[in-house]
Amino acid sequence: MTTPSQGRRSKVDRFGERLRQRGATLSPRLKVVADYINENRRTVLGQSALEIAAQTATSDATVIRAVQALGFDGLKDLKRTLAGHLGAVISSVDKMTSTTQELERDIDASIDFVRDGHMIGIAEVTKPENRQAISAAIELMRGASGIGLFGIGASAILAEYAARLLMRNGRHAYALNRTGIGLGEQLLAMRSGDVLVMMGQASAHREGVATLEEARRLEVPMILLSGSASPAFGRQAQVVIQVPRGKSETVPLHGLVLVCLEMLVIGLAATEPDRSLKSLERLHTLYEDIRRPPRGG
């Protein structure tokens, strides 16, 4: 029986073929665009030439020239080709298959895959423009009554962890990390005066859309953590922090999202050290109360 993954791999990768044939003839700037498209194929399907230009530090004209240099009529033609090869959805199984095939059962290559992904990502996260975005995000959080942290899937664990860190440091924080109707109960915690930290994804899933609608209704500003978020998320964000997750065809790396969340938590604590210290002292008092044997026991 042919699996979905096998069926997808049997399709002709016209973009890949043209990049292999013509990549060496591209100028450095055109090559940057071509490499970005190659490493972020599914993301590119939802991006304009201007958005691709922003991700590659080029211009929209350079993006179009790169696409045409690879033999496509334009961006629409490129997207049709990519969409035909990718299919509708890349499952977790397909991503793991792609990743393990790339690493060819080599443990050293696996270590390098994760190391290189995080090292490249750290360089991206700490660029000057991202440092400014993180500073702006901390200012929003500092003035907020409460901090909601949205994330589902693997990001649900990160939302819970970040909320606990913020509470330890004296902030009212809560996770928005359930799926389906369970998210509705969590959204009742959101109030005017709060700020929303959203770990966005390339697709505008229903939980994310519902959270955005509630934030809009309450006039809650939003901080977006994403390397390739849905335009619906990006349009509503007051601050966007670019957090790369690796190639769209391979298993995503979540460590950089955690790093960015910890930057926000520690940065906020550094601006309000007294508040953090008071909260931690109170926490240790509570720990002692909990450890104390019950009376009459």
Automatic annotation (TrEMBL):
Record CDD domains: SIS (cd04795)
InterPro entries named in the record: Homeodomain-like_sf, HTH_RpiR, RpiR-like, SIS_dom, SIS_dom_sf, WH-like_DNA-bd_sf
Pfam families from the UniProt entry: HTH_6, SIS
Limits of the SIS domain: 137-274
Domain HTH rpiR-type: 13-89
Annotated TM spans: none
Name by which UniProt lists this protein: MurR/RpiR family transcriptional regulator
Species per Swiss-Prot/TrEMBL record: Xanthobacter oligotrophicus
Classification lineage: Bacteria, Pseudomonadati, Pseudomonadota, Alphaproteobacteria, Hyphomicrobiales
